[in-house]
Design brief:
By secondary structure, the protein is α/β, with parallel strands linked by helices. Helices cover 42% and strands 17% of the residues.
Length: 532
């Protein structure tokens, strides 16, 4: 079997964007041609002498800031070495001018470009510095039809996950790479991310059942491997320090492309480089190995683990719940695919896949049922808010909007046999404490406050803030704040400020459904779970 060697060279630490999730520090250093040439020579003359093929990945920063250098390195390698090779780099796509397009088209068989694309315009612009309109997406699809794009998820894009995935597929990319929760010190363990992700994953299961030729890296897990005989080996899943070669801008060889001065300070790098990378056990979290059924398929990065926990052997646990939830939906998708086509896999793989589906459900379904139930209630509330706006669009003003919101909440409350207090006819009583108050009630006695809601259509922050802070005082299960803003930036700033206030309020409980309307994009929902 042919041997392929996969080294990486960083050509620049500079970047022309400032993506929200980037964990790197861009100090402006770039590699010189002479240094890069020495790296190429070492790869061909020393590291890969026994390889049949060499695939060199160039990274940044933004690699196309060094386009002239990349061309020069390509011509040097082609003129100097006869061994089969190709170059690869992932770009943000914003610097690609007509001259670059012409050159890459001419060399497309041996110099491959990948694109970072996080979804449609709204999602991508929010994550990646308003850069969507600077990218010629069709160039990447037409020039490299077999190449996927790379997607990264933030808490913002998580709310539009299904929409973003379907948009990228609609642009002609059958496979979407990455699809990772962004790395760093961010806490993905909050319950609200589960509530947000459940309907998104459900929508994607339905989508992929109808589009079997498309998939993404998050969903592409071979569940049969969970039941394979060798799946429980304590091993590492990357080549950090031994199976990879990474050259930094100064020509220094480092353990991997994550472990660089762009990510870690000098003292931490010294600690990392003292690691005995020949010992696989250093990279195994024994707690995960011994106690987690999905350990063999759990995605992780050794460098990212070190950034989050300060250790290679202590994995970042903040994503555990989300990964288990994702696997539950993958099991659902696989089960439906097998029911639809019993010949989908060979007999052995079918058996092991079904066994894995059964075990996944046995391990996690009961644990996640409360999250599914809460997510369903949240989606019901979101739907009635959206329905009220659709009716109001035909009426024309904020008074109608408020009136229709009240009517939708009244129907919602009556369907659940709850009492509701609001201004609108049909409620049990007039407005009381809040614009809308929904209670479980026995006779005259209130058993539980299920929901309170405030709506403020003024664009003045102080007016919005006044109504929002009233919600902090409620002991209800759900607290709904509905307001409007002019831009995504204003909306996200208000969401951030509200979240900070919620987290700082010591006796806060329940689940906040923060709801912002924008004329261009409609409603945006932010869920904050205060329950401990």
């Amino acid at each position: 079997m042919p041997i392929t060697y996969h080294p990486t060279i960083c050509v620049t630490q500079k970047c022309n964007l400032n993506c929200r999730y980037c964990y790197q520090q861009h100090d402006g250093k770039s590699i010189s041609f002479e240094t890069a040439k020495r790296c190429i020579d070492e790869i061909f003359q020393k590291d890969a002498v026994n390889a049949d093929r060499i695939e060199i990945n160039f990274i940044g920063g933004e690699p196309l800031l060094q386009f002239d250098l990349l061309k020069e390195l390509y011509e040097y390698t082609k003129a100097t070495y006869e061994k089969d090779f190709y170059f690869f780099t992932t770009t943000n796509g914003t610097l690609l001018d007509e001259g670059m397009k012409s050159w890459f088209s001419e060399h497309k068989k041996t110099f491959i470009l990948g694109l970072s694309l996080d979804g449609d315009k709204e999602i991508h612009d929010y994550n990646r510095s308003n850069s969507f309109d600077k990218i010629d997406i069709d160039f990447f699809r037409n020039t490299y039809p077999q190449q996927n794009v790379k997607m990264t998820l933030t808490e913002f894009s998580l709310k539009h996950f299904a929409r973003g995935i379907k948009y990228i597929h609609s642009r002609g990319f059958n496979f979407i790479g990455g699809v990772n929760l962004y790395e760093g010190t961010f806490d993905w363990a909050k319950n609200e991310y589960l509530y947000t992700l459940i309907p998104q994953l459900s929508e994607l299961v339905d989508y992929y059942l109808q589009h079997s030729s498309e998939t993404n890296q998050m969903f592409k897990k071979a569940l049969a491997n969970l039941e394979a005989k060798d799946s429980r080996k304590a091993r590492r899943y990357c080549g950090i320090g031994s199976g990879t070669a990474f050259y930094d801008v100064d020509g220094i060889k480092r353990p991997c492309s994550y472990c660089t001065p762009m990510t870690f300070d000098g003292k931490t790098l010294e600690k990392i480089e003292k690691t005995d990378f020949s010992k696989n056990e250093i990279f195994v979290d024994m707690d995960c190995f011994n106690n987690c059924y999905i350990y063999p398929t759990c995605p992780h990065c050794s460098g990212a683990n070190f950034l989050a926990t300060g250790s290679f052997s202590k994995w970042d646990k903040s994503k555990c719940k989300i990964q288990k939830l994702i696997v539950l939906f993958i099991a659902d998708l696989e089960a439906k695919k097998i029911i639809a086509n019993s010949k989908l896999y060979d007999e052995s793989k079918t058996y092991h896949t079904i066994k894995a589906i059964e075990n996944i459900r046995n391990h996690y379904r009961e644990e996640f049922m409360p999250y599914f139930e809460t997510s369903k209630e949240i989606e019901e509330i979101k739907k009635l808010i959206n329905d009220a706006k659709e009716i109001s669009d035909r009426c024309g003003n904020n008074t109608d909007w408020t009136h229709n919101l009240n009517k939708e909440f009244i129907t919602f409350a009556h369907n659940k046999d709850f009492k509701i207090y609001s201004k609108t006819q049909g409620s049990n009583w007039t407005e009381w404490l809040y614009d809308i108050t929904i209670c479980k009630q026995t006779g005259e006695y209130i058993d539980e406050t299920y929901l309170v809601a405030e709506s403020e259509w003024s664009l003045y922050d102080e007016d919005i803030w006044y109504d929002f802070q009233k919600l902090l005082l409620s002991n209800s299960k759900y607290k709904v704040m509905i307001f409007q803003q002019k831009s995504t930036e204003d909306q996200e700033k208000m969401f951030t400020d509200m979240r900070k206030q919620i987290e700082s309020y010591k006796t806060c409980n329940g689940i906040f459904i923060l709801t912002c309307f924008q004329e261009d994009y409609g409603y945006e929902f932010e869920i904050v779970d205060c329950n401990k």
